[in-house]
From TrEMBL:
It is an enzyme of class 2 (transferase). Gene3D superfamilies: 3.40.50.1100. Pyridoxal 5'-phosphate binds at N73, G174, T175, T176, G177, T178, S255. GO terms for biological process: cysteine biosynthetic process from serine. It comes from the Bacteria. This is cysteine synthase. Belongs to the cysteine synthase/cystathionine beta-synthase family. Its EC number is 2.5.1.47. Transmembrane segments: none annotated. Residues 7-281 form the Tryptophan synthase beta chain-like PALP domain. GO terms for molecular function: cysteine synthase activity.
């Protein structure tokens, strides 16, 4: 019997073909189901890489006061993995976060602080704690171990599971760790693979997809690694999230709906191709919101 742990279940998520939404017969659209990670999202990969490397380097231990700003999924992943490593962590989130997210983090043993000024306010609060009170932050927005998790795992999995035939990769952009890491790996295999980032239209608020003010642009982001961006509106993302559930049987969050909107726009423009789009998380952590009303 293999001595597999919960941490061994991170990664190697399914790649499933769109059966309904993609109507271009010459294009195959695949969804990478990151909700199948044990913590329920793509962020398990980065959280594990950031924590393990910090522990191995002797930067943190059980006595370290950890703090991280998060819109949700990274916080859940950090809470789950910190508990396994017997680390204490405070997670700072926008106060409009769904109760499922807050309760999940608490269930894993984290302290949760809700901030009234959104993710930017949560980031500022966290920075102040680090500078003035001796806290340690992983700072997912600037941590090289964030994108390197996807360089080591997500990118190779996509290459393997498409047998090297992927032509386009589509990902929502938040911290940008996923798209940076996958782009770095796939471009090394075939420089012609197109990397497509998803951003919200002006005035649209889509959890997990951001168009950052310059002062908050993630330090790990490199615009040269993204060939094209497609903008989606909040209404488009909501409608597509509902369609993903009803028509493809994929219950996911709004950022996944947004990525799917972009992937389908792309598919309609191509003569042929194999598109892989990231389904960031599971939709059950949004059931208390009006997303599926």
């Amino acid at each position: 019997m293999k001595n597999r742990t919960i941490l061994d279940q991170i990664g190697n998520t399914p790649l499933v073909k769109s059966m309904v939404l993609n109507t271009n017969p010459n294009v195959s659209l695949y969804f990478k189901l990151e909700g199948d990670n044990p913590g329920g999202s793509v962020k398990d990969r980065a959280a594990y890489n950031m924590i393990k490397n910090a522990v191995d380097a002797g930067e943190i231990d059980a006595s370290t006061k950890l703090i991280e700003a998060t819109s949700g999924n990274t916080g859940i992943a950090l809470a789950m993995i910190a508990g396994i490593f017997k680390l204490n962590i405070e997670l700072v989130m926008p106060e409009n976060s769904t109760k499922e997210r807050v309760q999940t983090m608490k269930a894993y043993g984290a302290k949760v602080t809700l901030h009234p000024d959104g993710i930017e306010g949560a980031r500022d609060y966290t920075t102040a704690k680090v500078e003035n009170e001796g806290y340690y932050t992983f700072n997912q927005f600037a941590n090289e171990d964030n994108w390197k998790a996807h360089y080591k795992t997500t990118g190779p999995e996509i290459w393997r599971d498409t047998e090297g035939e992927v032509t386009h990769f589509v990902s929502s952009m938040g911290t940008t760790g996923t798209i940076m890491g996958v782009s770095s790996f796939l471009k090394e295999q075939n420089k012609n693979i197109q990397i497509v980032g998803v951003q919200p239209t002006d005035g649209s608020s889509i959890p997990g997809i951001r168009k950052w003010p310059t002062a908050y642009l993630p330090a790990i982001f490199d615009a040269k690694k993204v060939d094209r961006t497609i903008e989606v509106s909040r209404d488009e993302a909501i409608e597509m999230t509902r369609r993903l559930a009803k028509e493809e049987g994929i219950l996911a969050g709004m950022s996944s709906g947004g990525a799917t909107v972009a992937a389908l726009k792309l598919a309609s423009q191509l003569e042929s191709g194999i598109i892989v789009s990231i389904i960031c998380d599971r939709g059950d952590r949004y059931l208390s919101s009006d997303l599926f009303e």
